[in-house]
Amino acid sequence: MIENLPFSALRVFECAARHLSFKLAAEELHVTPAAISQQIKTLEHQLGVKLFNRHNRGLSLTEEATMGLAELSSGFESIVNSVHRMRSVSESSSLTVWTAPSFASKWLVPRLHRFSQAYPDIDLNISASRELIDSITTKNSIPAENFRSNNIDIAIRFGKGKYPHCRVDKLFSVSAIPLCSPELLKGEHPLRCPDDLKFHTLLHDDTVYEGRPDWKTWLKAANVKSVDASHGMHFNHANLALTAAIDSQGVVLSMRALASADLAAGRLVVPFDISLPLEYAYYVITLKEFARHKRITAFRDWLISEAVMEDV
Questions:
Q1: Cα dihedral sign for 64, 65, 67, 68?
Q2: Which of 6, 100, 123, 195 could form a disulfide with 94 if both were Cys (CB 3.0 to 4.6 A apart)?
Q3: What's the CATH code, domain 88-168+281-309?
């Protein structure tokens, strides 16, 4: 009977059917692929129908599954919409912001005190996630349900700006520049021109995302042929690469926006101002139906005003 069907299993089916992948469903629901598979088997047993055709290279929906998917997806969307609307009213004094860890720590957090001073009645919840960077797996999209299921009011994302069902405001464009400690501007081999990089260690930010700047492209743009772009230290997080640069361990290629606080404090300098414009940019994203809420509008306008004040 329908009342005995487990809600969680129906949710798992909807997610797996949408992705046609147990692995991607597991990532979205933060469980293991084995747990997804078990829930599907349980649901198939209770319904008495087969829901997926298993193939060597993936899954396909059975006719029975296809017939029920659209209304089931619509039902879940209605549920999360209702919960989000109730939350938006009951928690009108709070604002949840979702952004990438490097952007949060290096650009956003150092400025938040100014927002709190201007809007003391709005409580901020900052949530950092690497999902907020366009990559091959995310396919440049933020499903609207991610906002609702994670109770997110605003997202700040590095990408191409194509996010369906959302209001999208460009925060700022970015360029890649070399950065180093002031200590590397003196000593036996001071950094005076790009060719001097051959005497120093290249620091690589290997965070996986589309549009990531790399030393090979920058060196080519600077017409430097005496430096091997593959050598140096490699890091899987921008913060680690920037910290190594602050500690005089080498020269990092990064975005001015991520180093603005360190540049202002004198911990980092730009040894030669040869920038590499990037195709991607930072965007402020909100669900269209909530884009005009006062607290959301206040934070969005504040973000844009902060960006305008700074040359990034």
A1: positive
A2: 123
A3: 3.40.190.10
